[in-house]
Amino acid sequence: MLSERRLEVLRAIVQDYVGTEEPVGSKALTERHRLGVSPATVRNDMAALEEEGFIAQPHTSAGRIPTDKGYRLFVDRLAGVKPLSSPERRAIQNFLDGAVDLDDVVGRTVRLLAQLTRQVAVVQYPSLTRSTVRHVELLSLAPARVMLVLITDTGRVEQRMIDCPAPIGETSLADLRARLNSRVVGRRFTDVPQLVADLADSFEQEDRGTVSTVLATLLETLVEETEERLMIGGTANLTRFGHDFPLTIRPVLEALEEQVVLLKLLGEAKDSGMTVRIGHENAHEGLNSTSVVAVGYGSGDEAVAKLGVVGPTRMDYPGTMGAVRAVARYVGQILAES
User: What is the pTM of this model?
Assistant: First the structure.
């Protein structure tokens, strides 16, 4: 375990390197920070930190920079994330409050996160596998043509056209709508197939074909929509950090184009806690020079999806973590109220 003083020296090195983009020397540290010890002691502490792999010397200058291991310890021992100012919180609320539907919420969230953190923002759409049914609407378009509208608790709306094997009257359609909703409203998508398995049998013989067709379409919709979707924004922000990436940012850009990679980066949505993966902790080789800060969001205690940012390891971790957490909280509130 590092002594508290050496941890303080490491914190100062991280803060200065993030702020100045320059390797940090012992003289600069003692001038900028109240470490309460002599420059010689700071030099000794830096030598010990380097020996243990927390900082490194990028070239023969006197300065040192944090390693992945150093950033990891810095993040793990953070006293707290940086709270957003009142104007920042108001700006988030005002920007997100104007959203008209789920696509708009996700789009606004991506833009907002990219602007707040000046990193690449990634937002996962709420997963239907963790969603519940809010309402199923059935609308008659023609004697044998029906539109099915599925509305989730996270504000997602799915529509399907159904060609029925026989005409269905308004009374029968209203009856089906009522019986269907009584079984599935408030229930998990994963539970729906079991809940409607015997529903067709409860109808008159002449309506069973149509009821079965409607139910088959509903179940197909649930299966189709379990595929995860993402929105990404702010990729151009990476060009501001060109010197933070060895040789080129191309491997980072290529990794960001792969949905599967991004989903793995964000991690399992059911975990609503904050995750920070630094440098080589990211399994994908193209992202070894980046850090990922992600957190779950949802309309209740359980996360239905994740959002986060990707940027260079030389990142303002307290500020980024504060922004990501605040945005996730507001998105959760919007879903709860929608």
Answer: 0.78
